[in-house]
Amino acid sequence: MTSPLFESFHYTKITIVLSFVCIRRLLLNVSSATEKVIVYTSRCSGVSGSILTLMGGTLCMYCTLKKRKLNKLKEHFFQLNGGLLLQQHIGRYSGSNELTKIFTEKELKEATNNFNEEMVLGKGGEGTVYKGILPDNRIVAIKRSRVSNPNQTEHFINEVILLCQINHRNVVKLLGCCLETKVPLLVYEFVPNGTVYEHLHDQSKSLRLTWKRRLQIAVETAGALAYLHSATHAPIIHRDVKTSNILLDHNLTAKVSDFGASKIIPLDRTQLTTLVLGTLGYLDPEYFHSSQLTEKSDVYSFGVVLVELLTGKKALSFERPEAHRNLAIHFHSSMKEGRLLEIFDDRIIDEANVEQLMDVVNIASHCLRLKGEERPTMREVAMQLEGINIVEKHQWENVNLSLENAESILKATPSSSFSVDGVNNISMHSGSDVLNQISFSLTRGR
């Protein structure tokens, strides 16, 4: 008879043996499964590696082809935008101070934060102007024209070639251009205080333009135009003189801008038959009807600018009565009827000198003659205005314009004479010294 203790030990031994067998089988199964997983994973890794290598190669090839295509496109635009021609002209006309640079598209994108809306200085019918910051921390203005017609590229090339030839303190300086885009970009010096138009007509942006400052703007603009007409290797006609194309820098110094419509007159000719371009209200009526472009077309437009400075009114406004919509016509009728006091800008009446006002009125009326041959040259206009300005600086016995003493003067029609040699409308202490100073400032390009 078997003892209970022995039976218990026997059953325990069997249980241990069975457990060991089960564990061994389990381990064998796991090992087999693991081997299968490892083999499978190894095969998958090989396939995945091949796929990744193929994808990487394809991506690399795509990027290379895309870059090559982009470079070809940039080369195409460079040639289309007259790049080779511009390089020749830039090298020929750039002064010794600083060469006009041809920028890459990448440089200008970085300068404007990819042409961010926050960098927009202004928008117009012709395009958008952005503020840009170059790597050397220079602030520039970048003009990006709208895509409209093939003539735009011609205007662009024209403007670059013209500005490469000009070196005058009252003409906006061209720093460079970009030819790698469909519509080429122009890079100018940054002129921070906007346009004369804005400060005359936009109250939200207005700086107070005193009479003294307005007279200085007229002097500087006239000097720049006189330089373009007579001091360059061939006369340059701006063709779009207006207050929105006169910029003001940090010192409120005037700078003439936007030469896209400008024309060079060959030395053997005095006029060109050309497509009429310009801005209504400033456009020379003789040029408008005949298509004959001469230097006197700029003189007419400048006359409108003078009247705008005197009156603070827009050159053309449909908010005024029909008879007064065109400022030049309104000015002529007011002068004939002895109502000049009614159209002068109230903001300058209390500080202006009566004689100065009438001198400027006289100059403006001559500039606005309907026949170009009866208008003065810009050189004559600049000398007259410079003379008025010099006298203003040296004579502080200003006669303030009051209603009592002004009406009798303003009702008189200004003298029809216009003499530069005698500077007849200006009373001076020493006329010859003043004229010498004026002539020197006009010929040296400031």
From TrEMBL:
CDD domains: STKc_IRAK. GO terms for cellular component: plasma membrane. It is found in: Membrane. Residues 115-397 form the Protein kinase domain. Keywords: ATP-binding, Kinase, Membrane, Nucleotide-binding, Receptor, Serine/threonine-protein kinase, Signal, Transferase, Transmembrane, Transmembrane helix. One of its GO terms (molecular function) is protein serine/threonine kinase activity. It is a single-pass type I membrane protein. It catalyses: L-threonyl-[protein] + ATP = O-phospho-L-threonyl-[protein] + ADP + H(+); L-seryl-[protein] + ATP = O-phospho-L-seryl-[protein] + ADP + H(+). This is Wall-associated receptor. It comes from Phaseolus angularis.
